[in-house]
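Allow me, if you will, to draw on your knowledge of protein folds for a short while. I have a record of one protein: its chain in single-letter code and its fold written as discrete structure tokens. I remain grateful for any guidance, and I place the record below:
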Amino acid sequence: MSFSRGDTRRGRLIVLAGPSGVGKSSVVRELRAMYPDLWFSVSATTRAQRPGELDGVDYRFVSAAEFDRMVAGGELLEWAEIHRGTHRSGTPHAPIEERLAAGLPALVEVDLQGARELRRAMPEAFLVFLCPPSWEALVERLVGRGTESPEIVERRLRTAKEELAAQDEFDAVVVNTDVRSAAEELLTLVLDKSSDQLETYE
């Protein structure tokens, strides 16, 4: 499968967001495995690199000073403090702009706050909300992790309710009943919204 430039019209920015525990990362991993030529934005982050992570592939790992410089220079479309300020992450503008200017699609995975910031920065972006099949399924996933305290789980659930209530702000909703099906539906949206810019998809 490959994408190639069809003309000089701009590509489409597809923004994926959803509540904590809905499986955004799993859907994106599946999409990467299914269609490795589809381009994903790599976030810049100040957190430490974890074993197995590749700089420039999983994240762009930068120092706090470098992140400050990027913010001051307007190089990030959106950024936020994560986990009460333990680190910061953001979406670099230049790689996305280069992709869109070439007439090709770009996909970004962010949280609700990030999606709102991207909509303000780039009103033409197409926002996709990844939704759980039911509230009970989301609760089971968050509680079933067993890696967090009851207080943190409760906070995540409160946040998830707020995020679910915001899905009407999005242009499309994909229900993650099955990771493979959700990835296929997301790809269909990418192709539908970018078909005018794509010459081939094989």
About this structure: The chain has seven helices and ten strands. The chain has one domain: 13-191. Residues 1-7, 196-202 have pLDDT under 50 and may be disordered.
